[in-house]
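Troubleshooting: if your tokenizer reports a length mismatch, compare your output against this known-good record of 119 residues.
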Amino acid sequence: MFEFICYPKCTTCQKARKWLDEHSIAYTERNIKEDTPSYEELREILERSEKPAKKLFNTSGILYRQMGLKDKLSEMTEDDMLRLLSTDGMLIKRPIFTGSGIALIGFREKEWSEKLLDI
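Known-good structure output:
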């Protein structure tokens, strides 16, 4: 079973949900703000996504800017990044779609089509 981790008010998440529904892909939905992924979950998502930890950050978010993370990430370890991300779901890039050994971070239709339509 797949899990769609999103922020319901996010327009990108809404587009991704619509795309999933149009392609009849079953999932459970989880609100990233109310139920922030744990450090362990983020570690697993990172491994499945095969992306660097900095790609998990919502760089367009208000909290990211308020915390001045653009200048701080280069000095942080992957472990530091994951611990910080696990403290507030609004720091995490969304949506995240995970399950069956994959994790997609952010919605890019071409990538989602390549990874999900042949399952």
